[in-house]
Amino acid sequence: MRPADCLALNGGVPVRSRPYRWPVHDEAERRELLEVLDNDRWSFDGPKETELGHAMAGYLAAQHALPVANGTAALEIAVAALDLSPGDEVIVPGLSWTAAARAVVVNGGVPVFTDIDPRTWCLDPAAVEAAVTGRTRGILVVHTYAHIADMDRLLDIAHRHELFVVEDGGHVFGARWNDISAGTLGRIGCFSFQQSKAPTAGEGGLVVTADPELADRVYGLANCGRRRRPEADWGFGGNHRITEFQAAILRAQLRRVDDQITAKNRQVAAFRAGLATTAGLTVHPPDPRITRRNFAALPLAVDIGEFGNVCTDLIVTALAAEGIPAYLPHQVVYRAPTWTAGLRNRSRHRLGLDARCPVSEQVAGTAGIVIAQEAFLGRWTETAHLLDALDKVRRLAATIPADARDTRRI
Question: Which residues have CB under 8 Å from 80's CB, separation 6+?
Fold first, then answer.
């Protein structure tokens, strides 16, 4: 049997023998880190954190940008700054990492899981409109993988119903909607700089807002209640500060973002064209209102019928063995074990466990995979390995061992 006719899972030669490089770093990050190491300020309003806040505000055209420890902290602080009352409802996507919904629960609110658009995997505005009740206080929008939610319609819904909008832009840092940075369109925006994101420091987060009073609250919530300005009120906050080491890495990483965006968009265009000959896989084009695109991972719609009805977890397992950074999408939040574990001390209602989001369930179950961004940062010959591997796995899907299940998610 020729190598091209045998999956790597079954002893064949993998399409790629080396992993794609991620994270990307060089002497620039090393120099920034050594400057911190040689300084006596490693945390708490240090020079790197201050520089990073100014640089992020400038890059995103945000009035206030406050670095924090991680993206989860950013979301929880953002929702806390908006003063939910116990039982207030906040609309969240059914398909997402659990952090967005958790930010609502830990602040006393109730997440209302709402379905997604099948093309973008972001909140479906029609479903959001239908989910609004007299108890709804806000919408927590997650821009998922490579798409930005329909902010025109969502902001209109929020305006008509007097709701706040919090954006989670961790997947799309630097992307723009009608030439406005994603994350700056709502009342507060949040970003994650976790390992899979760009830019990254392994961990790290950011909160942005145009409202100076909200910025004061965010600062206090992240800094043990301390005041950002002498005239600001004291807060009731924990310690969610970013370190100088994280801030230093992110300063260097931020300088890479523009070149990475250019490379990713160039490679994705060629990848989409090449994918046209591989049945069963679709990369949906971005909304034309996305005037600049960035992504942490590229979502692919999958027709498992073209893969012999092999489930997506087996497809991902086979692709990973071929050296491809392929993953399953997020789980549906209300079915994730890391979410249902909350039943130990919370009710089904508080966790939104009776929700049903059919599109989210289909995408998470059988209709989608994602490819990590690093596959689109090198030369075209490296990105082209994706096409080779996807075609190989589709042709040989019937030979994937039924017990070779991988639940990798990004």
Answer: 107, 217, 221
Give the pLDDT score at 277: 85
**In contact, 190 and 75? CB cutoff 8 Å:** yes
**Using CA atoms, how far apart are residues 116 and 118, in angstroms rounded to an integer?**
6
Contact of 393 with 359, CB cutoff 8 Å: no
Average pLDDT, the chain: 96
pLDDT above 50 (res 1) = no
Q: Would you tell me how many other CB atoms lie within 10 Å of the CB of residue 401?
A: 12
Q: What is the DSSP letter of 363?
A: I
Strand partners, 207: 66, 190
Element (H, E) at 54: helix 47-60
What is the DSSP pairing of strand 180-181 with strand 281-282? unpaired
Q: Is the pLDDT of residue 243 over 90?
A: yes
| Angstrom distance (rounded) from CA 410 to CA 404 | 19
Q: Return the minimum-mean-pLDDT range out of 20-34, 157-171, 272-286.
A: 272-286
How many CB atoms are closer than 10 A to CB 261? 18
Query: How many angstroms separate the Cα of 197 from the Cα of each of 129, 169, 174, 194, 322?
Result: 30, 10, 12, 6, 23
**Angle, vertex CA 237, rays to CA 236 and CA 239, nearest 5:** 155
For the cut 90, the answer to whether the pLDDT of residue 409 exceeds it is: no
| Start-to-end CA span in the chain (Å) | 34
pTM of the model: 0.96
CB 136: neighbour CB atoms within 10 A?
20
| Residues whose CB is less than 8 angstroms from the CB of residue 381 and which lie 6 or more positions away in sequence, other chains included | none
Rounded distance, CA 4 to CA 81, Å? 55
Residue 350 pLDDT > 70? yes
Once rounded to an integer, what is the mean pLDDT over residues 229-246? 94
Contacts of 6 (CB under 8 A, 6+ apart): 12, 13, 396, 399
Which percentage of the chain shows pLDDT scores above 70?
Answer: 98
Instruction: Kindly provide the residue ranges of all beta strands, DSSP E only, lying in 134-174, ordered along the sequence.
Output: 136-142, 164-168
Which ranges of 117-256 does DSSP label H, i.e. alpha helix? 125-131, 151-161, 212-222, 244-254
